[in-house]
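Retry 2 of 3 after timeout on previous attempt. Resubmitting structure tokens to design endpoint.
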């Protein structure tokens, strides 16, 4: 009977240890660790120049508006110019993503846009500021004292893997960082491998894969902290996900231990009779 009791206790201990080791530790869940702050330092600064130097590529959509003292001149560019991309069936301007796509200027496979008066303008591998200056110089030949506004029409992000809401997202701002992007997708799950998050950048020659560690506070100074249009973020699952728990299942452990003790007590009582 003592042998049976010893084996049972050993079995219970093994089960408890298995539950404990299969839980995801706080070290793998928490963001921005190792920030190296001390009691005498309440804050710490990470240098990361916030700049938007994205060079547009074929398939991108540009939002271009022209402002001039001559209203007819402005309307020609802002209405007739953008109508080359189409309009709604009712004759009005499309709204939302479809409106930006239909009424913006699509960059062709050759890297050009069709612009009123100027015809085809080559913009591939130019930044938004460079495109704005280039169009301003062209329009200046026809009308002085004009102002040109150029923005990237659609800032697409694809977020996949261990996040609450994987999918494709459109951002209506000039830049976005990794944490803001993950917030769009409902944050990474506890089973997400935050130490090894993949970012796939679209380049002029293809794609580039970089890996970043969101557990480390040094990510704030990483050049890949700020994302680029058409980036893909992939949060890999931890290997422990196949049999793990996000927290220690104390109730399950205690229930199993109580049941085992009850069975052993019953067996010992029967054995004494």
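Retry 2 succeeded. Sequence:
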């Amino acid at each position: 009977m003592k042998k049976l009791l010893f084996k049972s206790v050993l079995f219970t201990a093994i089960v408890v240890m298995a539950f404990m080791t299969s839980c995801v530790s706080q070290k793998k869940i928490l963001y921005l660790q190792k920030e190296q702050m001390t009691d005498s330092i309440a804050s710490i600064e990470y240098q990361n120049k916030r700049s938007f130097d994205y060079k547009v590529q074929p398939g991108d959509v540009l939002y271009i508006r022209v402002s001039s003292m001559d209203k007819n001149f402005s309307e020609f560019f802002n209405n007739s110019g953008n109508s080359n991309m189409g309009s709604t069936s009712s004759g009005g301007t499309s709204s939302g993503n479809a409106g930006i796509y239909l009424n913006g200027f699509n960059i062709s496979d050759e890297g050009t846009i069709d612009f009123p008066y100027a015809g085809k303008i080559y913009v591939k591998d130019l930044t938004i500021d460079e495109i704005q200056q280039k169009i301003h110089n062209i329009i200046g030949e026809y009308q002085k004292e004009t102002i040109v506004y150029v923005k990237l029409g659609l800032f697409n992000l694809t977020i996949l893997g261990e996040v609450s809401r994987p999918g494709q997202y459109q951002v209506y701002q000039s830049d976005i960082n990794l944490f803001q992007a993950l917030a769009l997708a409902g944050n990474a799950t506890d089973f997400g491998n935050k130490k090894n998050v993949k970012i796939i950048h679209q380049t002029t020659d293809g794609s580039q894969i970089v890996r970043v560690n969101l557990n480390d506070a040094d990510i704030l100074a990483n050049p890949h902290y700020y994302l680029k249009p058409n980036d893909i973020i992939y949060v890999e699952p931890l290997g422990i996900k196949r049999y793990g728990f996000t927290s220690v299942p104390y109730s399950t452990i205690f229930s199993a231990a109580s049941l085992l003790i009850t069975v052993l007590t019953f067996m010992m009582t029967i054995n004494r009779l």
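Attempt log closed. The first strand starts at residue 61 and ends at 68.
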